[in-house]
Hints:
Elements: E1 2-9, E2 14-22, H1 32-38, E3 46-51, E4 77-85, E5 89-91, E6 98-104, E7 117-125, E8 131-135, E9 142-145, H2 153-159, E10 167-172, E11 183-184, E12 189-190, E13 196-206, H3 216-235, H4 239-252, H5 261-285, H6 288-301, H7 306-318, H8 322-335, H9 340-384
Antiparallel strand pairs: 1-2, 1-4, 3-4, 5-6, 6-10, 7-8, 7-9, 7-13, 10-13, 11-12
Helix pairs in contact: 3-4, 3-5, 4-5, 5-6, 5-7, 6-7, 7-8, 8-9
Enzyme class: isomerase
EC number: 5.2.1.8
InterPro entries: FKBP4/5/8-like, PPIase_dom_sf, PPIase_FKBP_dom, TPR-like_helical_dom_sf, TPR_rpt
Amino acid sequence: MTVKYEVCLEDGTLVSKSHGVEFTVGDGYFCPAFAEAVKTMKKGEQVLLTVKPQYAFGEDGRSAVDSEGAVPPNATLHIALELVSWKSVAHITKDEKILKKILKEGEGYDRPYNGTMVQVKLIGKLEDGMIFVKKGHDEGSFEFKVDEGQVIDGLEKTVKTMKKGEHALTTVQPEYAFGSSESQQELAVVPANSTVYYEVELVSFVKEKESWEMNAPEKIEASGKKKEEGNVLFTAGNIERASKRYEKAVRYIEHDYSFNHEEQQQSKLLKVTCNLNNAACQLKLKDYKQAEELCTKVLELESRNVKALYRRAQAYIQLVDLDLAEADIKKALEIDPGNRELKMGYRVLKEKMREYKKKDAQFYGNIFAKMNLQQANAAKQEQRTPMIIDSKA
């Protein structure tokens, strides 16, 4: 909020005055009454407030601070307040490490998503105000594709929340900026562990065609492109981004009922390849349940796919479903008995099974030992307890 205000005591003594000050409603300003009052006001509205002590400075009052006067204990205040303007502030991520303040609202409802080509104007600054990057102001709009890693993660995530024509300030903490390493940028070096500040305007964007807007050949072509993008990212070590590309590739051809026979065959091959590649991503990301589900989808299409059987076995091993892992590896070896990777994997599995059997034997052995000890102690206690005979029996 940006407000103008004048605060007086009941006898007319001026306490504080400002021709324009900005604050966040959640943080409040001056006294609790400010945050409560602005929630009820419209832009340009002027009000006169009578503020009781509990919404002012209570029993303690407040000492004079710089040019502001003192407020006695239990004082009622009279405040003339004008709401000049307000700007929306939002946390972009759940961990609250990217903050966006809207300076100018955009138009319409559409926002960019992964794969969208965006045109922006931006200025990046350090905490001391030094500009380290400036793009799109002199040479025309700066273009980048969302989720391609061409700009920092925090900027991508911010742009995905913006509308066309929107102008915003975003604060990005190191985890979503340049991290723990120093980074040489266009106009200055960004020191390690720096929080950075961007002023960004989303000039325009061009979204990819939605699946429902495409015919069958277009869907197959789009799916193939996403698969190739995923392969490039996987090779470069960008596993999470690669996984998203494979997911998108499958979504294009998920519903292929209207495809002709040849198109269905192409679609099936793409589904098998992309789900297998995504399973490899999930194994690296240690999401073993997701890897198992992706391999199962492949096996529903090709029940004798050796890679799917082996990758699902790897997932089962990590999920400690060793019997299921053994069944998959055995089936894979029946199909491809000379496969060295399978043989090595089976040896590793057998070793793990021996380890778990040994641990189980030790675990149950300890339980039985404790039970035997408890029974022996109970028997000794019974022997020590004198037998009482009922004389009336």
